[in-house]
Amino acid sequence: MEATPTLPALHYLNNGYGLKSWLLTKDHKRIAILYLISISVFFFLGGLMALLIRLELATPEADLLSSDTYNKAFTLHGVIMVFFFLIPSIPATLGNFFIPMMVGAKDLAFPRINLLSWYIYLVGGIFTFYALAAGGVDTGWTFYTPYSAAVSNTHVIATALGVFIAGFSSILTGLNFVVTIHRMRAPGMTWFRLPLFVWAHYATSLIQILGTPVIAITMLMVFVERAFGFGIFDPARGGDPVLFQHLFWFYSHPAVYIMILPALGVMSELIAAFSRKKVFGYSFVAFSSLAIAVFSFIVWAHHMFVAGISVYSAMVFSFLSFSVAIPSAVKVFNWTATLYKASISFETPMLYAYGFMGLFTFGGLTGLILATLGTDVHLHDTYFVVAHFHYIMVGGAIMGYLGGLHYWWPKMVGRMYNEFLSRIAAILVFVGFNLTFFPQFVLGYLGMPRRYHMYPPEFQVLNVLSSAGASVLGLGYVLPLLYLLYSLKKGAVAGPNPWGAAGLEWRTSSPPPTENFPITPRVTTEAYEFEPQMAPEFKLV
Amino acid sequence: MEQQKEASTLGMWTFLLTEILFFGGLFMAYMLYRIWYHDAFAAASRTLDLRWGGLNTVVLIASSLTMALGVRSAQLNRRKPLLLWLLATVVLGSVFLGVKVIEYSDKFEHHHVPGPNFVWESHEAAPAGEHQLGGGGPVTEPGRAASESAGHAPAASNPQFQQWTQIYFSLYFTMTGLHALHMIVGIVLMSVIAWMAWMGRFDDHYYTPVEMSGLYWHFVDIVWIYLFPLLYLIDRS
C-alpha cells in the first residue's frame, strides 16, 4: 500500500504570508490565485445582474425593475461577464498557473509583466465599479454607436475606459504566454510533446495579441467622440456607425474564441486524464486550435447581416462562418474517439467534461442556424441568439473552467474537495443550465426579442422555466464556492498526483514549490503517456 | 542570459505587432472616410503646413539615426557615445513634440479642432476642390454604398462639406495625438535608459533594454512615416 500523502514542507503558498508577499509577488502561481479571487468577485457580481434580469422576466409586466434599470442590469451583466470574467477566466488563472509547469519552466517569460497585467486588470475593474456605483451604463456590452457616443446619458466613458484598460491586461497575458511557449520549454519538450492545453492557449494568445488592440482603438474612438465632441461614428455628422460595428466585431467575434479555446484545451486534458488514454489524433487537435484562431478573424460580419452590409459580403461571411464548424467538430470527434475503448472514470472534472461536450456541440450547431443568411434574418436579435451564445459561453467556457478548476484544484492547494458535493454541483449546473437556456431557443424562435424587459403574456411559461433554471444554476455555482473554500483547511491531503494523470505538472509536489520543480525536468516522452496500470487484484506485492 | 535576451526580443516584436493593430483601426477608419469624402479630405489636408510636417519628418528620421547609433555604441561598449546618442534622441523627440504644439495651436486659432467650436469657411477649400463634384460620400445615410448617393452639389457649397472636413480633423487629431502620446512615452523611456547608461548598467554583454527601446522608437518613427503622407501629402495639389 502507498503511504498516506502529506503536504510538502515548503511550497509556494507557505513561502511568505504577508500582504506584501502576495501583492508584490512575481510567482505565476500566486498571480494566478490573485486572478482567481478577483475574477470570482466579478463572476458573482455579473451573476447577480443575471439573477436580477431573470427575476424581472418571470412576469410579463415590468414590476421589479424600471426600463432604465433593466437596461443597466443587462449591460453590466454583459460587460462584467465578457471583459472581466470570461476573457481572463481560464488563461489568467489555470493558464497562468499551469502553462509554465506544463512546459517545465520555473515561471513565465516575464514575471513582472504578469503581475503588471493583474494590476492593469484591477484598474480596469475599478473604472467599471465606478460606472456601476455612479449610476450604471445602458448601452449594452456592445457599445453600439451612435447611441453610446452621442445619445446615452449614462456612464459610457468610465465603462469604455474600463474595457480599454482591461484589454491591455489581456494583451500582456497573451504576449507572456506566446514568449513562454516559444522560449521557456524544458529540454526535450518539443512542440509536439506539449499538452493540448498549451496549444489551445497558444492559439488564444494569438487572438489576444492580434484582436485586442483593435477593440482598444475602437473604444478610444468612442471616447474621443463622447469626451471631446470629435465626429467619427456619428451619422449626423457624416460618420459611419457601421464602421464601428465592423471594428467592434473584428475583435469581439475572435474574443468569443479567447473565451472558448482555453476551455477546449482543458477538455483535452480532462478527457485524456479520465480515460487514461492518449488524445486521439493529437496533431489534428493541436492544429484545429490554430485553425479556429485563424478562422475567428474572418467571420466577424455575421453579426451584421441585417446592419445593411452588401449581400455579397454577407454571403461570403456566411460561408466562412460555416467553416469554423470544421475545426470545432474535429475536436469533438477526436475526444469521442479518445473515449472509445478507454478506461473511463467519472470523477467530478469528467462530469463537467461530458456536460461540456453536449452543450458545446448543441451551441455550435445552433450557431450554424444563425450563420445561415435566411434564418438569421428571422432570428437576429431574438432570444435564440442569447440562448446560442450562452450555450457556448456558459455551457462551454464556464463548464470548461469549472472542470479545469476541479481537476487542478488538488494541485493548486494540495487538498481534495468533497467529491459527493462536487458531483451534485456538477449535475445542478448541467440541469440548471439547460433549464435556463433551452426555453430561450424556443422563445427566440417564437419571436421574443432580446433586451426587452416586458413581453406578451403567452411567453410567460417559457420565461418562468428559464428563471427557475437560473436559480438552480445559481445554486450550482454557489456550492463549489463553499466546498472549495472548505477544502482549503479541511480537505484530505491530495498528494502529487491524485488522478494518476500524465503531464509535468503532476510530477511535482502539490502544492508545488515556488520554483515548480526541484530540478529542471527533462522530457523524453510524448504528451499523455500513461503508465500501464493493472487492476488492483493483479498488483504485485 | 541568452535565453532572456531572446525572450525579450520576441516579446518586444510581439508587442509591436499589437501596436500595428492598435493604429490599424484608425488607419482603417481614415481609409474608409478618405474614399467617401475624398474632396473634403483633400481640401482639409491642404490647410496643414507642409513645412512643419516636413521638418518633423526629417527630425524623426534623424532621431532614428541617433537611436541606431546609440545601439551600435552599446554593442561596441562605448559608454560615452551611447549616452550622447540617447540624449540626442531625447532632444530630437522633444523638437518633434514642440513643432506639434505649434501645429496644434494653429488649429485652435483657425477653429479646426473638432467639436462645437469647429468652423470650416468655404473659401478654405483650395482651388482644386472648388470646381469638382462633391465627395462621393452618402449625404443622408452613411453606411450605404457610397455610389448610391454620390453628391452632385459643388464641393464647398455642400452643407455637409463642413461635417466631412470635421471628420478629417477628428481623425487627424486622434491619429497624431496617439502618435504624440507614443512619442512622450518614448522620450520618458529614453531618459530612463540614458540614466541607466549614465549609471553604467550596460556593456557589450548586456544592452537588451537599449535595443528594445530602440525597436520601440523606430516603430513610433515608422508610424509617422505613414501618417505624414496620409495626412499631409496625398492629393495636395
Blueprint (SSEs and pairs):
The complex is a heterodimer of chains A (541) and B (237).
Chain A: H1 19-23, H2 28-56, H3 67-103, H4 111-134, H5 147-151, H6 156-183, H7 196-228, H8 241-275, H9 282-296, H10 311-339, H11 348-371, H12 373-379, H13 383-413, H14 419-446, H15 460-490
Chain B: H1 2-36, H2 38-46, H3 50-75, H4 79-109, H5 127-130, H6 161-198, H7 208-233
Helix pairs in contact in B: 1-2, 1-6, 1-7, 2-6, 3-4, 3-7, 4-6, 6-7
Count every beta strand of chain B, where a strand is a DSSP E run of 2 or more residues: 0
Main β sheet profile of chain A: none
Helical proportion of chain B, percent range? over 70%
The biggest sheet of chain B amounts to: none
Greatest interface by residues involved: A-B, 41 and 42 residues
- Helical element count of chain B? 7
Give the CA-based shape of chain B: elongated
How many structural units, i.e. domains of chain B?
1
Give the CA-based shape of chain A.
globular
The protein's oligomeric status is: heterodimer
- The assigned structural class of chain B equals mainly alpha
State the CATH topology of chain B: Four Helix Bundle (Hemerythrin (Met), subunit A)
Kindly provide the radius of gyration of chain B, computed on alpha-carbon positions and rounded to a whole number of angstroms: 21 Å
Hey, roughly how much beta strand do the residues of chain A contain? under 5%
What's the helix-strand series of chain A? HHHHHHHHHHHHHHH
Q: What is the C-alpha radius of gyration of chain A, as a whole number of Å? A: 23 Å
Distance separating the two termini of chain B: 54 Å
**The CATH homologous superfamily of chain B:** Cytochrome c oxidase, subunit III, four-helix bundle
Question: Which residue ranges of chain A are poorly predicted, with pLDDT under 50 across at least 5 consecutive positions?
Answer: none
Plain-language structure description:
The complex is a heterodimer of chains A (541) and B (237). In chain A, helix 4 packs antiparallel against helix 6 (156-183). Chain A starts with 18 loop residues before the first helix and ends in a 51-residue tail after the last helix. Chain A is globular, with a radius of gyration of 23 Å. Chain A is built from 15 helices and no strands. By secondary structure, chain A is an all-alpha fold. Chain A has a single domain (31-58, 66-234, 241-533), classed as Cytochrome C Oxidase, Chain A (Up-down Bundle), CATH 1.20.210.10. Chain B is elongated and about 65 Å long. Chain B has a single domain (2-36, 49-121, 163-233), classed as Cytochrome c oxidase, subunit III, four-helix bundle (Four Helix Bundle (Hemerythrin (Met), subunit A)), CATH 1.20.120.80. With 237 residues, chain B is an all-alpha fold. The N and C termini of chain B lie far apart (54 Å). Chain B has helices spanning 2-36, 38-46, 50-75, 79-109, 127-130, 161-198, 208-233. Chain B has seven helices and no strands. At the A-B interface, helix 6, helix 7 and helix 8 of A face helix 1 and helix 6 of B.
